[in-house]
Each structure stands twice: as C-alpha cells, then as structure tokens.
Amino acid sequence: MRKNIIITGFMGTGKSVTAKELAQRLEMExxxxxxxxxxxxxASIADIFDxxxxxxxxxxxxxxxxxxxxxxxxxxxxxxGTFLNLDNIKTMNQEGKVICLYATPQALYSRLEKKNNRxxxxxDNLLNKINHLLxxxxxxxxxxxxxxxxxxxxxQEVVDKIVTLLKLER
Length: 170
Ligand code: S3P
Hints:
- The chain is an alpha/beta fold.
- The chain has a domain at 4-103 and 139-151: P-loop containing nucleotide triphosphate hydrolases (Rossmann fold).
- The chain is 53% helix and 15% strand.
- It has helices spanning 15-26, 33-41, 45-52, 54-68, 86-95, 105-112, 126-142, 155-165, and strands spanning 4-9, 29-32, 74-77, 96-102, 146-149.
- The chain has a five-stranded parallel sheet.
- The mean pLDDT is 95.
C-alpha cells in the first residue's frame, strides 16, 4: 500500500483528469473530492453553494479531508479551494505527498470559459475573476514543495512529471 498522493491547484489546472490517470498508472484508487461531496449531498457543487453557502461546503471538504487521511493508496483530486483551510493543509501534508498544479491565467481562462459550473467564478469578466482569485490564493499555491505548470502539457505529460518528481515505481 502506498501513502496517498494529493493533487491540488486552482480551478482548471487539470487536477481531476491528472489524478484519475495517475491512479490508473500506479494502480491506486482515484478520489475526486468534489464528486464525493456532490454524491453525499445529492446536489451539484453549484447547488450546494446556492442552498447552504460556501461555509457549509468548506465544512464538508474538511470532514472529507479528515476521513481520507485515515486511508491509504488513494490519488485524491482536491477542490481548488480545499487548501484555504489550514487544518486541511496540515492533515493532507501529514497524510501523503501533495502536488500543486498551476497554469497561466490565459490557459485557465480558455479551459474554464467552456464551463459554467463553478460558483466562485460564474458570470461576466471571467479573466478578471480568475486573476483576482489567483492573486488572493497565490501564497498558498506557491507554498507547496511540488509544483507543475500544466499550461502547455498534455495529461500524460503531467502524469509523467509527477511520476518522475515523486520517483514512483509500480
Ligand atoms: C473551488 C473549486 C471547485 C469547487 C468549488 C470551489 C475553489 O473545484 O471545489 O467550486 O474554491 O477554488 P475545482 O477546482 O475542481 O473546479
């Protein structure tokens, strides 16, 4: 059994696709935190924000982080804001290796403009919203030891880099 690998980063950096592919490559279990929360609540992330507010969603994230930290052999894709909570940072750093994906605001924009399911950046002026939120969160994303710029990389290339970075073998 391996320790968990946690893939984090801003919305649109490719956390879920990367974590899924990495899990397959390493024969580990893939967990997408947002999807687990949606299943448990029986509602989409957008609906959870609408009905109960961001604070409630963050509480659900925190509960899930604690639960997952008791397990092994997982490749976890966090939500983009999971690490805004210091308790989550502490727990996940203890639990396994954290990789932070990042990308240029332009790359994020072109990936995110096609989708309309993120409550924190919905509506007009998407690029402004991305820049604003990135600025506020920059320090946290930059604080991780392992970081990968996904702007010009395919999912396979990102996974290759993670495998090399963590010196992972089957
Ligand atoms: C959020 C990112 C989203 C989701 C929620 C809040 C954030 O996840 O958890 O909308 O605060 O950055 P993705 O990064 O998977 O889109």
